[in-house]
Amino acid sequence: MTADPTTQSNYLEIASKHVAFDWNVDFEKQIIAGTATHSLHAIKDGVKEVIFDTSDLEIESVSVNGERTDVSPELISDSVLRLTSLVVQAWD
């Protein structure tokens, strides 16, 4: 498979099997708020992280297996993440 040059994700190593969205859409303010829960499948052995493309998203928190996960302080601005990709370290 040829790599996609427009993504920062590591989709050739790990893939979403299923994504469950729980969203509230405010058409007047043009805002979508809610959660996206990913069920992941490692394509390669030894995968230590998953990288999500997150351009133009405001991320308030990240959880792994239901546990809130710390994110590097340098990525946090006003308690909201604003970045182009999100790296989540592997779970045990």
Descriptive report:
InterPro entries: Aminopeptidase_N-like_N_sf (IPR042097). The structure is a single chain. With 92 residues, the chain is mainly beta. It has one domain. It contains no helices and eight strands. The strands form four sheets. It has a two-stranded antiparallel sheet with strand order 1-2. Strands 3-8 form a two-stranded antiparallel sheet. About 9% of the residues have low confidence.
Biggest sheet descriptor: 2 strands, antiparallel
Going by helix content, strand content and strand pairing, the class is mainly beta
Q: Taking Cα atoms only, what radius of gyration do you get, to the nearest Å?
A: 14 Å
Proportion of beta-strand residues: over 45%
Helix content: under 10%
Total beta-strand segments:
8
Domain unit count = 1
Straight-line N-to-C gap: 29 Å
Give, in order, the helices and strands. EEEEEEEE
Shape: globular
Sheet with most strands: strand arrangement: 1-2
Mean pLDDT: 76
| Unreliable spans | 76-83
Topology:
Blueprint: E1 14-26, E2 31-42, E3 49-53, E4 63-64, E5 67-68, E6 76-77, E7 80-81, E8 85-89
Antiparallel strand pairs: 1-2, 3-8, 4-5, 6-7
Give a brief outline of the structure:
This protein has 92 residues and is mainly β.
What brief labels describe this structure?
globular; 0% helix; two-stranded antiparallel ribbon; single chain; Aminopeptidase_N-like_N_sf; mainly beta; 47% strand; 92 residues
